[in-house]
Automatic annotation (TrEMBL):
Protein name, UniProt field: NRDE family protein
Pfam families xref list: TANGO2
PANTHER family xref list: SER/THR-RICH PROTEIN T10 IN DGCR REGION, TRANSPORT AND GOLGI ORGANIZATION PROTEIN 2 HOMOLOG
InterPro entries referenced in this protein's UniProt entry, alphabetically: TANGO2 (IPR008551)
Length: 286
């Protein structure tokens, strides 16, 4: 994952609890399976990296969630570092002996964080109303996230890179109904925007002006290409987009996920991607 924007409302008693839109950016040669229920762990819904064995974003029928982005620091990359995707799958599969709270899990991850190449990791438990974040670069300890609209790209949480600021703002506008005030429910409340709208929001090829670009140690032309929310270069780019909505409905939490992939299902990249997978399920609150 290279761009995630999300809205977190842990105190919600009805309606949206968590809304997310995310792009996964990766080398085109790296094979992966799309969003699916894992055979070896039937309660896990996630894609699967077929090289490292982990994943970049996923959730469970019990209410766990995790997502990962790489931290861009090309001169610090170590080829012998362990794969970062297992940090997501370990939380989702509830690996033996690990803490069972998001903050506890990230605190344990942080003990060995220096072994990995740079990453941001968000883990949550919707039934606990807890969402936490950790980056293994910098001096910030794992922390629970406050209510609000946030974004992560390839630097620490809410670093104001142009594409992050733009998509975080657009997500907030959509959620707050500023762009869809006429579509209402029977009670008169604004309906949530369809997940397809969040997907389209993220498929944006606009690049930043050169004077807005961060300096992350890569050539200017590459920096420019990677400044788009939707990246498309000959060897690297956005491989898929995920939209996720988690809502409180009485004694249930409703989860709805939509993925649009640029992989046609046979590990071949096709532009523009239009291979969609939709999943929905409910979690009973005890």
């Amino acid at each position: 994952m290279c761009l995630i924007v999300f809205d977190w409302r842990p105190h919600a008693r009805d309606g949206a609890l968590f809304t997310l839109a995310a792009n996964r950016d990766e080398f085109l040669r790296r094979t992966a399976d799309p969003l699916h229920w894992w055979q070896a762990a039937p309660g896990v819904l996630a894609g699967r990296d077929l090289v490292g064995g982990g994943t970049w974003l996923g959730m469970t029928r019990g209410g766990r969630f995790a997502a990962l982005t790489n931290y861009r620091a090309p001169h610090e990359m170590r080829p012998d570092a362990p794969t970062r995707g297992t940090l997501v799958s370990s939380w989702l599969t509830d690996a033996e002996g690990q803490p069972d709270t998001p903050l506890g899990y990230l605190t344990e991850v942080a003990r060995n964080g220096s072994l990995y190449n740079g990453f941001n990791l968000v883990v949550g438990d919707w039934t606990r109303r807890e969402l936490a974040w950790y980056c293994n670069r910098g001096d910030l300890a794992p922390a629970l996230l406050p209510e609000g609209t946030h974004g992560i790209s390839n630097a620490v949480l809410d670093t104001p890179w142009p594409k992050l600021v733009r998509k975080r703002t657009e997500l907030a506008q959509i959620i707050n109904g500023a762009m869809d005030v006429t579509d209402t429910t029977e009670t008169g409340a604004a309906k949530p925007a369809p997940l397809e709208r969040l997907i389209e929001m993220m498929r944006d090829p606009q690049v930043a002006r050169d004077d807005e670009l961060p300096a992350t140690g890569i050539p200017l032309a590459r920096e420019r290409a990677l400044s788009a929310a939707f990246i498309d270069t000959p060897d690297y780019g956005t491989r898929g987009t995920t939209a996720l909505r988690v809502s409180v409905e009485g004694e249930h939490i409703k989860v709805e996920a939509l993925e649009r992939s640029d992989d046609n299902g046979s590990h071949r990249i096709e532009r523009p991607g239009h291979f969609e997978r939709h999943e929905a399920f409910a979690i009973v609150l005890l």
